[in-house]
Design goal:
Elements (H helix, E strand, L loop, with lengths): L22 E3 L33 H11 L32 H12 L25 E9 L2 E6 L5 E5 L6 H11 L23 E8 L8 E8 L5 E5 L2 E3 L1 H10 L10 E2 L4 H6 L2 H11 L5 H38 L1 H56 L1 H85 L8 H67 L1 H12 L12 H4 L1 E2 L5 H6 L3 H4 L2 E2 L3 H13 L12 E2 L15 H7 L3 E2 L4 E2 L5 H6 L7 E3 L6 H10 L2 E6 L2 E7 L7 E7 L13 H82 L3 H102 L2 H27 L14 H17 L5 H63 L3 E7 L8 E7 L7 E2 L7 H16 L6 E5 L7 H15 L6 E6 L13 E4 L15 H20 L1
Parallel strand pairs: 4-23, 4-24, 9-22, 11-12, 15-16, 22-23
Antiparallel strand pairs: 1-24, 2-3, 2-5, 5-6, 6-7, 7-8, 10-14, 13-15, 16-17, 17-18, 19-20, 20-21
Helix pairs in contact: 7-23, 8-20, 8-21, 8-22, 8-23, 9-19, 9-20, 10-11, 10-19, 23-24, 24-25
């Protein structure tokens, strides 16, 4: 709450201060001893929401929850600055660290804490009560300075039930906030602002929370002080006056078993609804933490871990057993193939050995043959070389005669070449003489033909002249009767005019048709585009459905079921707002979403109680709809418009402040949804503006005048409240506006949809009109085509007549051209020279040829004489050549006789050498083959083959030695003496055996052997897993035998009290344990019924009303109280929404339960009390008297003094009456 006072309780000049709150005791008890004020040391630290949580969580759980709490939560504060992280453990920084620079401190602390192991917070049960009545860990004193609504306050609660009473807005719930934050629990447990500096009172720079907790018997109390700063989010702790870290405080809380995070032990005002929203599994976990055997939680965690590991082990065991069985079956199927393969391998090895032995036998045989051939080759070579030496002199003389013969041959050939050249020259002269003779005959022939040519020229002249006369006669004849070209041209011109006019008409009609067709196409395209746009608009629903499916599969499946089963309901059941509500302007999507929480966004809205029951029956209560258990939010309330408050601001006020409208103005929905949106969400009361700079104070005042409400400016959500007491101060709690997630799908624009539908109708009309116009134009075009055909026919006639005229002109032109050609030819004949001149020319040529022939005859005679001389020389050279050849031939014949013996020796040598070379090559070949085959054998077969060969070689040496020495040969036992042929027979036999053995894929054998190894490994793994399964089962049984009886005892105890409490108010309630194979799914389920006509129904956050949920919550917590282990518990305004009868029963029951001698400390915060309630002497009532104004005079308004005065006056009155 806003306040301007900063003075303390004893200040004489107080203006708007806050008095120390009066304490009213039913049983007078005072604190025996004062508490010395602890030394105060300010230590800057970064307030983390994930600081140590207490001893009920293992280090692993601490880490997981710390990571969860690091996520940003929805909410904010008036001061929205982001704070800096100190370290990952949430520890506060010790004051002993350097503090000159804030950033340096943070860095140093990060270095100091990084990598440090998280302290394991031990589990602990409630410690024994001390002589003053307090249980260790319970709250003895609370002091606040500048905290939320308080300037300064200090009070001391009692050891049992503490009822904190006061009007709304005075700061009752702030006490719950102080307890949680002062003991280093995160702000999120309060459901309010998440920033620690938001709790410093407005107008002040700093504050603190000081809480004194009862210490163990015989030990001093624990005083925890937490300092806060409004400027930043840093904070510091002290323990008994000494600087401490947040983790150290959390460890102390764990030792004392303080459970502020457990809704079963600490239920702030803003978390009351969260209790009903807890899943049954969460309720089981929180209940075990809060009550019963202190080992319940650890046993349960062990069971969950062991159960999960057992499930994984059994799954792995089944998989491995199935795999081993399958592999054994597969190996059994191929075992015969493997045996056959091994037999084949044995045969192949025998064949390889035989092949090698064959090669070795062949090598021995070839070696022997090679030795014989080598000796024969050497002997033949010696004989051949002896004969060659004896024949050498004769061969030398034969070579000399051969050289002489070659020289004689060269002389004869040279002489023949010379003579041949002279003969060739003589031949050329003779050819030239013959050519001249031909020329002479040709000239004589030309002379003889001159007369004949002259006669032919005269005859040709006469023929040409006759042809010219006929052509002239043909040209002078009159032509055929042809039309007048001018008239024909005029007729053509008129026809062209008609054609042009008709073409223009055809083009216009064609253009009109094209326009009509284009209009038709355009209209069809417009229709298609409009239909496509309509389909896109309709697809918005599918986008929203897809968004819902990713968010909440159960709600999505329920929507699909509802759409298919609308006939089961009397009235329309509306789908969740995420589907049925549309944001008309996406700029306001974030503002609209701010008006919904997750449950409201997914709630089905019914219009009648009967439809609500039907919906719950099919979806929530049974598995008929979806085939599985689900929890879906549903809503229905009796229609009563009077319960819907009006809009808080008038249009003029909205405009004056700067609001743009209410959330309701920016959404579209079915009218049947209006009651839900107004009654449940009050969307018509949440004003919004995108301008962050409006006058927030004026908006707060306007909302405060109507009792409070919510408005949004820019990116800030403002929750305005107004106190109903004193000066009715107005308060404002702010948080940041989140980004839209669910309404970001573009809305369906109904106007656009209507425009598209109208466009389709209009364009369809245009399409039809264009089609009609096209048909009319087509008829017109057909008429034009008929006229065009008539014009073309007439044009063809004119064309034919023009062709006749052209043909006649062509005939005349042809005659003229022929006439011209004949005239030119006639002129050429007339210009030809006379015959005498040509005759004289030919005679001169004939005389010239005769002279040339005489000169050529002289040259021919000279060359013939030279040729004769050459012939004599050539004859002489030929005779010398014959003599030389004869000498050489005779000697060569003599040498040939001598060489016959040599040739015979050479042939014998060549034969021996060929045999030698062949055997040598064969020997190398056999040796190489043996060398190649030897490495291919396995090592043991190589050794065996080498041993056999060595034995045979040794045997052969011994046989040779025995023969040489004349003694008997050695024994052949164990010696491989088979010949090559015998080995080949055995080899063929084994090859036949191999062919009879069907070939098996080697991969099958490899697969078989690998699978055998895998089977052995799997069998070892299965034995290990079976041991693990047995170990897990044994451990689960051991822990379950401890855990389940203790849990059953706890639930039976709670259930007995819970059912009795419901019986007292005429209702029914049960607590049940839901068992499951998976320990993660074990749960505590609360079943209640508030009407005789109903059956017991599971408590959910949606099915029951707010008052029913509150009543169930407090009765469960009361039933849990006697079993609780926490040193103190707190509930805040749990009676809101209850009727008087239920509230009275709850109050009286709470007094009975919490005021027992062995009950722990309990805080009940409430703004109101009924009259004539039961009270107990162990109760303590704390009245919060806090507001903007208090009297200046000290002591005035002190409620304790007022009560003591009232008691004193009653005593005096009774004494006077008795006197």
């Amino acid at each position: 709450m806003d306040s301007d006072s900063e003075s303390g309780p004893a200040g004489p000049s107080r203006r708007n201060g806050v008095n120390v709150k009066a304490e009213v005791k039913v049983k007078a008890e005072r604190a025996a001893n004062g508490r010395a004020r602890s030394q105060r040391a300010r230590v800057d630290t970064d307030e983390e929401e994930d600081t140590g949580r207490g001893g009920r969580r293992s280090s692993r759980r601490q880490q997981e929850e710390s990571e969860d709490e690091e996520e940003d939560e929805e909410g904010g504060s008036p001061r929205g600055n982001k704070r800096q992280r100190v370290n990952g453990n949430g520890d506060a920084r010790s004051s002993r660290a350097p503090t000159e620079d804030a950033e340096g401190d943070e860095d140093e602390d990060e270095d100091e804490d990084d990598g440090a192991p998280t302290d394991v917070l031990p589990k602990t049960q409630t410690l024994p009560r001390d002589v003053d009545g307090f249980i260790p860990g319970s709250i003895v004193r609370i002091q606040l300075r500048n905290f939320v609504t308080y300037d300064y306050v200090e009070f001391r609660p009692g050891a049992h039930l503490n009822m904190i009473v006061g009007p709304n807005g005075t700061g009752k719930s702030s006490i719950a906030c102080a307890i949680a934050l002062g003991l280093n629990f995160p702000a999120k447990v309060l459901g309010r602002a998440s920033e620690i500096n938001a709790f410093v009172k407005n107008g002040t720079e700093s504050g603190y929370i000081e809480i004194e907790l009862k210490g163990p018997a015989g030990k001093p109390n624990l005083v925890i002080k937490r300092s806060l700063s409004a400027k930043n989010k840093k904070t510091s702790f002290t323990l008994n006056g000494q600087p401490a870290t947040g983790n150290e405080v959390s460890i102390k809380m764990a030792e004392l078993n303080v459970q502020v995070e457990n809704l079963c032990s600490f239920l702030p005002q803003d978390k009351v609804s969260s209790f009903a929203h807890m899943t049954p599994q969460q309720l089981l976990v929180e209940t075990q933490k809060a009550a019963g055997d202190p080992n319940l939680s650890s046993w349960f965690e062990t069971l969950k871990v062991e159960g999960k590991q057992l499930k994984e082990a059994l799954q792995k065991l089944k998989e491995d057993e199935d795999a081993a069985k399958q592999m054994e079956e597969r190996n059994a199927n191929i075992e015969k193939e493997v045996e056959r393969f091994k037999e084949r391998q044995k045969i192949e090895q025998e064949i390889a050995v035989l092949e090698l032995l064959v090669q070795l036998a062949q090598f021995r045989q070839v070696s022997q043959d090679f030795a014989v051939a080598k000796a024969e080759q050497r002997k033949a070579h010696g004989k051949m070389m002896g004969l060659k030496e004896r024949n050498a002199p004769a061969h030398a003389l034969e070579k000399e005669l051969e050289k002489a013969a070659k020289k004689a041959t060269e002389r004869r050939d040279n002489q023949k070449k010379s003579m041949k050249a002279k003969a060739e020259s003589l031949k050329k002269l003779q050819q030239k003489s013959e050519d001249l003779d031909s020329t002479s005959e040709e000239v004589i022939s030309q002379l003889e033909s001159l007369k004949k040519n002259e006669k032919d020229r005269i005859r040709n002249i006469k023929v040409k002249e006759s042809d010219l006369e006929r052509i002239q006669t043909e040209m002078d004849k009159p032509g055929p009767n042809l039309p007048d070209p001018a008239a024909l041209a005029e007729e053509q011109k008129q026809l062209n005019l008609e054609r042009n006019a008709l073409g223009q008409e055809r083009d216009e009609t064609h253009n009109q048709m094209r326009t009509a067709v284009q209009q038709k196409v355009d209209a069809k395209a417009e229709i298609d585009r409009a239909k496509e746009s309509l389909e896109k608009l309709d697809s918005t629903d599918s986008k929203k459905l897809h968004l819902l499916q990713k968010w909440d599969k159960d709600t999505y499946d329920s929507v699909i079921w509802l759409r298919r089963n609308k006939d089961k309901f009397k009235q329309q059941v509306f789908e969740p707002p995420i589907l049925s509500v549309t944001v008309s302007n996406l700029d306001y999507a974030a503002y609209v979403e701010a008006g919904f929480n997750a449950t409201q966004m997914k709630s089905f809205v019914a219009q009648s109680k009967e439809d609500l029951d039907t919906l719950n029956h099919y979806i929530n209560d049974t598995t008929k709809a979806l085939g599985r258990n689900v929890r879906v939010a549903t809503w229905w309330r009796p229609f009563n418009p009077d319960t819907v408050p009006p809009a808080p601001l008038s249009p003029d006020q909205m405009q004056e402040i700067g609001f743009e409208g209410y959330i309701n103005d920016y959404i579209t929905y079915d009218p049947g949804m209006e009651y839900y949106l107004k009654k449940e969400l009050s969307l018509h009361r949440i004003a919004v503006t995108r301008n962050p700079r409006i006058d927030v104070a004026k908006a707060m005042q306007a909302y405060g005048n109507v009792g409070g409400g919510t408005f949004i400016n820019g990116f800030t959500i403002n929750n305005v409240t107004r106190s109903r007491y004193g000066r009715k101060a107005v308060g404002n709690m702010t948080r940041d506006l989140g980004k839209p997630k669910n309404f970001i799908v573009p809305p369906v624009d109904t106007n656009r949809k209507r425009e598209l539908e109208e466009t389709i109708v209009e364009r369809q009309q245009e399409h039809d009109l264009a089609d009609e116009l096209k048909q009319e134009l087509q008829v017109k075009m057909n008429d034009i085509l008929v006229k065009d055909k008539d014009i073309r026919d007439r044009a063809d006639i004119i064309k034919a007549r023009k062709a006749e005229i052209a043909k006649e002109a062509q005939r005349v032109n042809h005659l003229k051209a022929r006439q011209t050609r004949l005239q030119n030819e006639l002129k050429a004949l007339l210009r030809k020279p006379p015959i005498d001149e040509e005759r004289a020319t030919l005679k001169k040529k004939l005389i010239k040829v005769a002279k040339e022939r005489i000169e050529l005859a002289k040259r021919y005679t000279t060359v013939a004489e030279v040729l004769y001389e050459e012939q004599v020389l050539c004859t002489k050279a030929g005779l010398e050549f014959i003599q030389s050849i004869a000498n050489h031939t005779a000697l060569k014949a003599l040498c040939a006789v001598k060489d016959d013996k040599y040739q015979a020796a050479q042939v014998a040598f060549n034969a021996a050498h060929t045999k030698y070379a062949a055997l040598k090559a064969r020997l190398n070949e056999v040796m190489e083959e043996a060398q190649k085959k030897m490495p291919l054998l396995p090592p043991e077969l190589q050794d065996k083959a080498q041993e056999v060969e060595d034995q045979r070689n040794q045997y052969d040496k011994e046989v040779k030695a025995a023969l040489k020495e004349g003694r008997p040969p050695p024994s052949a036992d164990g010696i491989e003496l088979r010949t090559t042929d015998e080995l080949m027979v055995d080899l063929d036999t084994q090859r036949t055996n191999l062919e009879m053995n069907i070939n098996t894929n080697p991969g099958v054998v490899e697969e078989y052997e690998k699978r055998q190894r895998d089977i052995k490994q799997l069998q070892r793994t299965i034995k290990e897993i079976q041991k693990k399964v047995a170990k897990h089962n044994q451990k689960i049984k051991m822990h379950k035998d401890k855990w389940f009886p203790a849990l059953q005892k706890l639930v039976d105890s709670i259930g007995k009290r819970f059912s009795a409490a419901f019986d007292r108010i005429g209702c029914a309630g049960e607590i049940r344990i839901k068992e499951d194979e998976d320990f993660e799914q074990w749960a505590i389920e609360i079943y209640v019924k508030f009407r005789d006509t109903e059956k017991l129904q599971l408590l959910t956050g949606q099915r029951q009303s707010g008052g029913e949920r509150s009543l169930t919550t407090i009765l469960y917590l009361m039933s849990l109280t006697e079993e609780a282990r926490a040193p103190f518990s707190l509930v805040d305004e749990i009676n809101q929404g209850m009727d008087q009868r239920a509230e009275r029963v709850v109050h009286n029951s709470m007094v009975d339960v919490t005021c027992k001698e062995d009950s722990a400390q309990y805080f009940l915060i409430t703004p109101k009390l009924l009259t004539d309630l039961n009270y107990h002497e162990r109760m303590k009532v704390l009245c919060v008297n806090n507001g903007e104004w208090l009297p200046e005079e000290r002591g005035l308004g002190n409620m304790m003094n007022m009560i003591e005065g009232y008691v004193q006056r009653n005593k005096e009155t009774r004494g006077a009456r008795s006197a």
